[in-house]
Amino acid sequence: MIYAYITNNLCITYYILSISLSTIYSIQEVFTIDIDVSNMSPVDAFERILAIIIDFNFLMIGALLINWFVSDSYFVILVVFAIFYNILLPRFWHGYTIGKRAVGIRIVHLQGKKLTLPTLIVREFLVKSALYSLFLGLLPLISIILVGMGRDKRAIHDFVARTYVTSRAPE
């Protein structure tokens, strides 16, 4: 009984992954048609992950300090602090967070415009926080594959918000 259950789940998982990978290639072709990659200086997954690790450590320490003064749930403080940190800091610091700045990468709007609060709310809150959590790891996995295999190195949240991550300094 357990063997059949595990085998059935593995088959379903394999089916979903194969559909996801074929969908990724289709999505990749659709979204990268009109983009001039040579001018973008796109960033690989390694640099993004390194910046995320630095940001996460900073967020943990910041939330711990806030929790010391405001005795509330540490997890709630961490989530709220992370959302504001990832939305407001790039808005006012040319697309940088502390981790991105340390690694030398930043978020840029696809059309070269200044990042706006609605763009960052869509990118960081609606897609990265809400949508990624809703799909329990499948969308972040697809994003990692897109960043690793795509010409323009854009993740799902970049496609939706019309942004990309670059190593170019602001002008």
Characterise the protein shown here.
The chain has 171 residues and is mainly alpha-helical. It has one domain (36-166). Helix content is 68%, strand content 5%. It contains 7 helices and 2 strands, in the order ααααβαααβ. It has helices at residues 2-31, 45-69, 74-92, 98-103, 117-134, 138-149, 156-161, and strands spanning 106-109, 163-166.
Secondary-structure blueprint:
Layout: H1 2-31, H2 45-69, H3 74-92, H4 98-103, E1 106-109, H5 117-134, H6 138-149, H7 156-161, E2 163-166
Antiparallel strand pairs: 1-2
Can you give keywords for this protein?
disordered N terminus, globular, mainly alpha, single chain, 2 strands, 7 helices, 171 residues, two-stranded antiparallel sheet
Short account of what is shown:
Keywords: Cell membrane, Membrane, Transmembrane, Transmembrane helix. This protein has 171 residues and is mostly helical.
- Give the total of beta strands: 2
Share in β-strands:
under 5%
Rg calculated over all Cα atoms = 18 Å
The succession of helices and strands, N to C, reads HHHHEHHHE
Pfam families: RDD
Protein name: RDD family protein
Transmembrane segments: 12-28, 48-66, 73-93, 130-149
Organism: Pelagirhabdus alkalitolerans
